[in-house]
Design brief:
globular, 583 residues
Length: 583
């Protein structure tokens, strides 16, 4: 606790010297939608947020959601390999199951296993990614304990383009995009032979969107086929996994219809016994929301959601969960003060009723300096796997599980030093109870139980500066302490220290470069804190040149050829090169 407040104090001292200086107000302001389900200036939101734009993604050379967010403040990106390898995203020491991932406002989390497969969410069509690092169950319901990640795709626009890339390990990408003002379509093919035995990956991704007056529609279809090489302790030269993911969303004047399907098959191809696993799940439903102005300074947003989650797997069986919800978000502007509060009630067919609330306050203090304070409650319902899992050896799920619950406090200071420079300092504290953990109830027999609680506390510091229209620099640092209160041990894969920095520059003649560095401190792989994963630093270099209407790119990832592991016993690739052409 004392270390955290000491860091918070130092960060404030570093960020506040400009407070005494007068600075003009920003003439333009970034707009976000995820924090409160309505468009609002990011500056005026009481909740900690980050935004990754399409320009950021292109400069990084990111191909999937995990790669696009690896340098973002407060994000723990954990990977087991490269393209196609299992990866997860956490926010402020949460579990990946406690982070709600959305695509255009629709859930991408699996009802069977919880969490979202960030390696399967390709980012060739994104307009931006919004990250809310604060509980949002008061507007989104279950799973938003750590926060929300919303992938927002590009609207229809007149375009015809081709994006190609070739690199080490026989890596290739081909992305075709076409559209007009009413509709757009893209088709992408991504593949690599991999850097480990049985580490190959091939994916196809199709996306379409259309907008006609009040009607908006988007749909996607993804096919991924990959080898599963396993760890260096238990390697596999034959295991395969195939994923078929599809979704369709309709929205007419605030009324939305949605359907999502995830079909996954895993085959170990063992020489003695054949082990097949199926993980199929479906999410579908309807929602509606509306906003009304009450007086001149008050905006009320309200709505409902009905959703059905169904899962079917060999280990879980076929089960369906029904969820109904009403939500309310109230925003009042008092000039220098702005107050928001939200409330959502969920009725779920298994765990019953849940009520989630949050409130946030923003104060425009002095000379483009803003103070923020927010408090929120959230929950995560047990997954279908937690509830109904069975195996031939006696391990089983627990239909009597209760939802995980959390209470979070967030304090923040943001200073706009000038038109281009912003400094932010945040302090966060989250207490989580009813944590679901699988416990060995007898030899080789496991069952999930609500037996643990945790505390995550930390400080975030971020400096950003826009150098020109397509040039920028950033630095962010996170210090966090995350402890299992039931055992006194540190939470797994929650490093105390994380540091990211990047510089992107482009000249008037189209010559550009970007340099990114990422430091991740040591962290534990097991709940008993006996297996330590060493810290590491990686550096990535990107170069590009505009040649007429074409853009030629050259990238050197892991420039220093660092030998490291994101996940214990899963080595990451060394230095690798790629060249690309975008027409």
């Amino acid at each position: 606790m004392n270390k955290v407040f000491f860091c918070f104090f130092l960060c404030c001292l570093f960020g506040v010297p400009a407070l005494a200086a007068s600075a003009p107000t920003f003439r333009g302001e970034e707009v976000i939608v995820t924090a409160s389900r309505i468009p609002q200036p990011r500056w005026s939101s009481p909740y900690s947020t980050s935004v990754v734009t399409t320009q950021d993604v292109q400069a990084m050379g990111a191909e999937n959601l995990g790669e696009a967010l690896q340098y973002s403040l407060g994000v723990d990106y954990k990977n087991t390999g490269w393209w196609g390898a299992t990866s997860s995203l956490k926010l402020r020491s949460s579990t990946y199951q406690q982070v709600l991932v959305l695509v255009n406002g629709r859930r991408a989390n699996s009802p069977l296993m919880g969490g979202a497969a960030s390696e399967d969410i390709l980012v060739g069509d994104i307009q931006k990614i919004e990250v809310v690092r604060f509980p949002a169950s008061s507007i989104y319901g279950s799973d938003a304990m750590g926060g929300v990640i919303n992938v927002i795709t590009k609207p229809p626009a007149k375009k015809l383009g081709l994006d190609m890339l070739w690199g080490d390990f026989n890596s290739q990408k081909y992305l075709l995009q076409a559209g007009n003002e009413l509709a757009a379509f893209s088709a992408e093919y991504l593949k690599t032979a991999g850097y480990r035995v049985n580490g190959d990956y091939a994916a196809q991704n199709y996306f379409a969107t259309a907008a006609f007056d009040l009607l908006k529609m988007d749909l996607g279809y993804y096919i991924g086929d990959r080898g599963v090489p396993g760890s260096t302790v238990y390697p596999s030269s034959t295991a395969r996994q195939t994923d078929h993911n599809s979704y369709v969303n309709f929205n007419v004047a605030g009324l939305g219809l949605f359907y999502e399907e995830k079909l996954q098959s895993y085959n170990a191809h063992l020489t003695t016994t054949e082990t097949d696993s199926l993980y199929n799940c479906w999410t579908y439903g309807v929602d509606w929301q509306n906003s009304v102005n009450l007086l001149k300074n008050r905006l009320l947003t309200y709505g409902f959601e009905w959703r059905e989650d169904r899962g079917d797997s060999l280990a879980v069986g076929n089960h369906t969960i029904d969820n109904q919800a009403l939500f309310l978000e109230d925003e009042t502007d008092f000039g220098d003060w702005k107050f928001e509060w939200g409330l959502r009630g969920d009725r779920q067919s298994v765990i019953g009723d849940n009520l989630s609330a949050r409130a946030g306050l923003v104060y425009d203090w002095i000379a483009n300096t803003q103070l923020r304070c927010s408090f929120g409650q959230a929950y995560r319902a047990p997954t279908l796997n937690d509830l109904y899992y069975t195996d031939p050896w006696g391990s089983h799920g627990n239909p009597n599980l209760q939802p995980e619950r959390s209470a979070s406090l967030d304090l923040g200071l943001t200073r706009k030093v000038d038109f281009q420079t912003r400094v932010t300092v945040n302090y966060f504290l989250t207490h989580t109870s009813n944590l679901i953990q699988w416990v060995e109830t007898s030899p080789w027999i496991w069952e999930p139980q609500n037996i643990a609680s945790s505390r995550a506390e930390g400080v975030e510091f971020e400096f950003t500066r826009d150098l020109s229209n397509n040039s920028a620099a950033f630095l962010n640092y996170t210090y966090q302490q995350a402890v299992n209160l039931s055992t006194g041990k540190k939470l797994v894969y929650s490093p105390e220290n994380k540091l990211n920095l990047g510089v992107r520059y482009e000249s008037k003649d189209g010559l550009g470069s970007a340099l990114y560095a990422r430091y991740v401190g040591e962290r534990y792989d097991d709940e008993n804190n006996t297996r330590l994963v060493p810290s590491y630093t990686t550096i990535d270099l990107k170069l590009w040149q505009k040649v007429g209407e074409a853009l030629v790119t050259l990238a050197a990832d892991n420039l220093a050829n660092t030998q490291y592991e994101d996940t214990l016993n899963y080595p990451m690739p060394g230095r690798r090169y790629s060249v690309g052409v975008k027409l």
